[in-house]
Give the backbone structure.
Amino acid sequence: RKEVEQDPGPFNVPEGATVAFNCTYSNSASQSFFWYRQDCRKEPKLLMSVYSSGNEDGRFTAQLNRASQYISLLIRDSKLSDSATYLCVVNGRDSGGYQKVTFGTGTKLQVIP
Amino acid sequence: DAGVIQSPRHEVTEMGQEVTLRCKPISGHDYLFWYRQTMMRGLELLIYFNNNVPIDDSGMPEDRFSAKMPNASFSTLKIQPSEPRDSAVYFCASSLDRKLFFGSGTQLSVL
């Protein structure tokens, strides 16, 4: 089983739609969770952190479910500019106490006019 | 802050040549990561450093690849000799408080 798993998509949605992505992780000791966005031929950029209490940033809502070991990202009122690949990131510690960062393979979103 | 700075942005070289990629992390960040990305394999972690010390280089594909971080503000990734299958985008990222910030990447083409 992969450490971090995402549905690769693509998700093709019309403008204005609501779309949700899920990501599961295998290490229950993982400590920090993030969503990154990567545009074609660009670097990944931090979109938002993910907390158990849930957090919202405009049209974006992220949620962490530690019991089920998954995180989610909800995008409301999709815009054409939301078209990108969304990467789930899980951050923990390795056996030496060093930061261990694991990226999912990404979910591709295409918002259609 | 200028963010993570990588150079060159593009590199085209011939098979067998030495390639050196450079990275300047964000000041104050204690981790530095080198990643490689291709369509086929996605984003792959090559090596990472903590406080200039290499921690895990298990992702380095083979002995042709080497990385150094002589000080807190500079790192290099070297490929010698380069091969066509090394063609990819190479990203450097630095981290503080578990959040990674990426440079714009180096697009490497080995002919």
